[in-house]
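[job 0417] fold request received: Amidohydrolase
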Amino acid sequence: MRLLALAAAAMTLPATAVAQEAAPDPAALVAAQYDRTEDVATRIWEWAEVGYQEERSSDLLKAELRDAGFRVEVGVAGIPTAFVAEWGSDGPVIAILAEYDALPGISQTAAPTRDPSGLAAGHACGHNLFGAGSLTAAIATAQWLEATGTPGRIRLYGTPAEEGGSGKVYMARAGLFDDVDIALHWHAGDENSAAASTSLANRSAKFRFRGVSAHAAAAPERGRSALDGVEAMNMMVNMMREHTSMDTRIHYVITEGGSAPNVVPDAAEVFYYVRHSDADEVRALWSRLEDVARGAALGTGTEVEWEIIHGNNPLLVNETLAKAMDAKLRQVGGVEYTPEERAWAATIQESFGDAAPPLETADEIQPYEKSLGYGSTDVGDVSWATPTVGLRTATWVPGTSAHSWQAVAASGSSIGVKGAQVAAKTLALMAAELFTDPELRAAARAEFDAARGEGYEYRSLLGDRDPPLDYRR
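[job 0417] inference complete; emitting structure tokens
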């Protein structure tokens, strides 16, 4: 098993002596692995593999974990690129989540000016950093467990296809988190925060219309345009927006609409997302969306069917854990730029147009608060299976939006790696406290049980469908 010399030496001492005299600092164990974090993050960034196609990224993480002495179970929940890796025995089970999928349709080199890389995808949400940082945190925690003789199991969950594929939902549905005491996660961002932020529930589907092709000029009466069905649906949904509650978000793209104007398209497809802070409201909105699709097909003489692609429950906040994570993040501190990184970041900020936050924001920790976030994540389903807590770190230049070329650039830079190290240190410190503080674990579990309520039964927004392994093809 590959361990730091400090961890190996500590094994020669009684556990009590280690705890009192020579217990290694989890953050120091992370710092010693900077090169590993950078190497793994860079390679996953260069591969930029989209959801359920992350073969090389998944294999790299699994190889690193096996080399560090973890037991690795592959292909879990019917997903070839998903895995669960575990180190240790007995004691509490602390999980760390790792993501590694890229976003299609956006690419960028690591330059601070717009320079598409030519790839079909890019890490515009920083999941290369997420995967590498979580890997480092898990290995450092295993080293700390062995060095201190602390009972417990640290698990790294390799979770593919967060971007629209809901990989974690299938893993939660399969019961893979049922014996976990606490789950930890983090995400790339443009600031450092462990605030207790919830998320929106969401569901997506591809609506496929079928019509009749014909010559658009010579025989228009013979045609029934599938694109008309899509456009009629979009028009009615846009009218529906007026009659939804404030937390509602609905968005779509036409993914297929025909190839030539003089051919009536017999096939067209539109990809929809529906979001709301309440999962039951998503279900109610979805019923209305399906009625709109049926009406659009009826009105245009076409047929329609749809395939649900993904669905996430909202994050269940656990403030007991969030406040503890906030304290650990403040202990670690933020991201400090070198003069070269500061110049690089200033160039990025020139592309924002509007006033951007000061670069010093990257080295600050945002105030703790509870708030509603308007994004969605499949971490939400994990948070209903076990107490869950996360944080964000400044892997991107302050003012950067997720899903942008600026985010891709920073995710492939030294700034991104520094942010991932901040996250890894915070996670490792948090894990060490959870392993040694049963009162904290009990308080988090009590809050979790109260929030779910008596008689809670997990309900996925995906139903019983299999993972859509081809949704990005």
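[job 0417] notes: The radius of gyration is 24 Å. Residues 414-436 form the longest helix (23 residues).
[job 0417] exit 0
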